Amino acid sequence: MESRWMLLLRFQHVFFFFVFTLITFFTENYFLDTPELIWSVILNVVFNIGIYYLVYYYLVPHFYLSNKYPQFILCALICFLVSSLFRILWEPAVFTMDFSKEGYHVGFLYNIYIAQGIVILVASFLGITKDKFLIEQDVIDLGEQKEQLYLDLLKSKLNPHFLLNTLNNIYANSFIPSVKTSDSILQLSKLLQYIIYDSGKEKISVAQELLSIKSLAGLYQLKYNNQLDISFVIQDEPVLEEMEIPPSVFLTLFENALKHSAIGLEQGSFIQLSCTIEGQKLIFETINSIKENHQIPVEVGYQGLGNEAIIHILEKYYLGRYEFISEPVDSNRYKTVLKINWNG
């Protein structure tokens, strides 16, 4: 738990005992004179600190939070009766108390019962609320960890087999020096730099994300001798240098397009990618061909963890500020559009 919450909890304890000390002082004032009054207040506060922490740190965690409510009530009642009886017996025995006025005996008993009841009730209430708060914090932390796992999953989505195959291709071509080999190494270097360094950041510039997409597309082009129909339309590139997004969001959408377009495997397959700014909205769009004999339900869209993880990340960073569409245009084309309202 964060230090500010620990500080708040400590303040609650200190504030309660400050108030309790004042109450004890003014109630005991009817029966004792100074300096016995001061000693009585000190001893009562020390005694009740023990009762308070017994309830707060033992009874609440061991009984109430374990759903042993009858045992908790019984133990709290025993604490109340024992502490009250102890004070009733030892205070008149230790201090010279004035019970000369009518009703002072009854008032003395009422004061003790009320004080001990307050101590136990407040300790129970604060102990229960503290642990409920800790449980809620754990739930929040687990939610954040889940979101981080989705993000980590996205960062690791680049197919290691594809990278391995690319290295094998570079190795095979390296026996005959060519521009293709040099370009392959350069594109792979850029992509590995993104994987190792940029994907570990919370956010990177849109321009960096697009550069990684171009590197991935470049490797595919080199693998298929630059015969692939992959087109890019990117506007306002200087502005995209300033904008930041979580890494791998756009890259994953592009990978989905590569996966489902059958590009390089079927004639007529293509991918069209655009990244533009319209007013206050950043718009990323891919349109790709669909594999032959591969039907995608209109109401569902691409299946798989990629889109689900993207939506979780968008919910975390752009809640209420994004629009995500993933649907077929017709029987041969599929469209994915992500719009982010940059200024809320």
TrEMBL record:
Keywords from the UniProt entry: Kinase, Membrane, Transferase, Transmembrane, Transmembrane helix
InterPro entries: Bact_2-comp_sensor_kinase (IPR050640), Sig_transdc_His_kin_internal (IPR010559)
Descriptive protein name: Histidine kinase
Keyword RNA-binding part of the UniProt annotation: no
Any Pfam family: His_kinase
Organism: Chryseobacterium daecheongense
PANTHER family: SENSOR HISTIDINE KINASE YPDA
Regions that span the bilayer: 7-26, 38-60, 72-90, 110-128
Domain of life of the native organism: Bacteria
Lineage, highest ranks first: Bacteria, Pseudomonadati, Bacteroidota, Flavobacteriia, Flavobacteriales
An example molecular function term from Gene Ontology annotations: phosphorelay sensor kinase activity
Signal peptide span: none
Any single GO CC term annotated in Swiss-Prot or TrEMBL for this entry: membrane
Domain Signal transduction histidine kinase internal region: 151-228
